[in-house]
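Attaching the record inline, Q. Sequence:
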Amino acid sequence: QVRLVESGGGLVQPGGSVRLSCAASGSIFSIHKMGWYRQAPGKERELAADITNSGVTNYADSVKGRFTISRDNAKNAVYLQMNSLKLEDTAVFYCYAVGRDYITPGSKTWWGRGTQDTVSP
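Structure, as predicted:
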């Protein structure tokens, strides 16, 4: 099995910072892309940021300039540094990865269970 485990969510004041971490483990052959989706209360899940195995990044317009995504290929890990947080950033953040395993052919998408980030005075 391939597992993704997130950590780092918490309670932070507006303007503060939070760093999320996610590590993948298991029968991984390769990972093409890792990233973070988020789901705010009452809203649909949306892509916040992702990064390819070659380091190409992609950000939602709402987080550009405030969030920074990075990865450690050796550890199969991805990180999201979130600065200048706003109330509307409150969400459950879900780590995901796209890649291949040793078990069955084809590209796969794996998901973490989610970590809560709450921005509040």
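The chain has a mean pLDDT of 97. The two ends are 40 Å apart (CA to CA).

More tomorrow.
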